[in-house]
């Protein structure tokens, strides 16, 4: 077996050593490399034309050629070395003649940007793979389990796609647009962005639409404050749609140059405004107690969306900066510094922590859905970030919720609520161990080490 070892630093690969071995490596234990079988990363649908109005032309062809079996369970497999040695058994038969195979081993420096991007890419892959187990999410992305449901449509050209996006953007940016009209147009953009990778790219390249959404989010918040903190269902529906649209734009693009340029310009002013307009009191006043229960549902949906957007912003910070404490714009430390100036941040984080306890302590309910599991992962990440890097938030969280975490949250219960077939289950359990250690002040837990079952899950 020929093996090549490479050192990866800043995206470059340098061959360090090449050697031949046919007996030592082949005797390795199958569990040595601690490998898992995970679902293949999903392909992104393309954009297709229909006879519908221009805004609804942004619909895709279902492009998955294989059924993603919801019963697929990540499990340990033989080492890559053994699989290489036995890969050609069908061709060589049982003659016992020697065969030659080549395996590339990569050594990645933890100080390189490539390593940071690899971690965040793994997190995105685990999140996406888990969401694809949800039939509702698959329908939203037009990913069907059966090829018979596919509709073959001609692919739109890049020029036509840009034309339709520009038309939708101009409709969104027009003056005196009603709240209902704005909501419907944003809903159209949100749905199309889920189904096509081109739209988020165009969104960041235009820049104007992102600034408009942030401004609308600010105006929505200011209008509530002018009414002495009174929110209405219309306010919450529009706010949620804006935040969900921004979230999908972040999630469906990686290190797009136009995105980084827009967000980092003017010392991150646009992101600062977005963060400050994003956080709101989880229990504000309403116009009438009659609509209290309905409003609480809308507020919960908004808090879920706000958590997801904040997670995407932090994930972006991890991708482009090596250190949490970097002074650079968009780093995780910079984002937390902006948030700490917000008066409602403690109540926002307490709400997120309460939802973690509620999700895992209800043993009478069904296991968490894929979407709920992803949201739990995002909440645990935010909690760990605040507990580790903000003494003020850590004090608020532990003083308010330490008893709930001590008596209502058990790892055994979490394992029952999280199906093992979810790719995100192991990362969640790893995060929960660290969160519990910080909430309960358990010094025996080493917070600097990764979970061996998920070595590339997102670190903070």
TrEMBL record:
It comes from Cynoglossus semilaevis. It comes from the Eukaryota. Residues 48-72 are annotated as: Disordered. This is Chromosome 8 C12orf56 homolog. Pfam families: DUF4551. InterPro entries: DUF4551.
